[in-house]
């Protein structure tokens, strides 16, 4: 099996069976973002406590790249400090620029091929941009 096939399967698995899909009943930082270029929409919710992302969930609609990226991101940042989550977002930006990067949560690397399709980079980065905005918002509220 080629790496591209494996990556495609990982992306489709997150798209068809998204992790952390839904909303919180309790209080959470909520960010709504959209990508007007292709119609992707996401609402990211995070519960941040004592400088840690205690939990993250999302709802939205869009392409397989956008929604699988949100699924991967919410899974990867759970339990991480704000600094670790922002560092992951920086690494993801590097991945989208075609730079070699390794993630502790390996599924994210399945999105490495997206950089070959510039129009799709915004799809992949939508949830990561929401993560950054959510962290900024939570820090302003403290």
UniProtKB/TrEMBL annotation:
SUPFAM superfamilies: SufE/NifU
NIF system FeS cluster assembly NifU N-terminal domain residues: 7-123
Gene3D superfamilies linked to this entry: 3.90.1010.10
NCBIfam families per UniProt: SUF_scaf_2
Protein name as it appears in the record: SUF system NifU family Fe-S cluster assembly protein
Organism: Paenibacillus baimaensis
């Amino acid at each position: 099996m080629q790496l591209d096939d494996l990556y495609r399967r990982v992306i489709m698995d997150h798209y068809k069976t998204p992790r952390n899909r839904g909303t919180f009943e309790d209080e959470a930082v909520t960010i709504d973002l959209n990508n007007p270029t292709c119609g992707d929409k996401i609402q990211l919710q995070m519960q941040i406590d004592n400088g840690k992302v205690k939990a993250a969930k999302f709802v939205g609609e869009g392409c397989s790249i956008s929604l699988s990226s949100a699924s991967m991101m919410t899974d990867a940042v759970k339990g991480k400090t704000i600094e670790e989550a922002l560092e992951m977002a920086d690494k993801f930006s590097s991945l989208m620029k075609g730079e070699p990067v390794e993630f502790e949560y390996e599924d994210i690397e399945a999105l490495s091929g997206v950089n070959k399709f510039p129009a799709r980079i915004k799809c992949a980065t939508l949830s990561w941009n929401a993560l950054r905005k959510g962290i900024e918002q939570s820090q302003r509220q403290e």
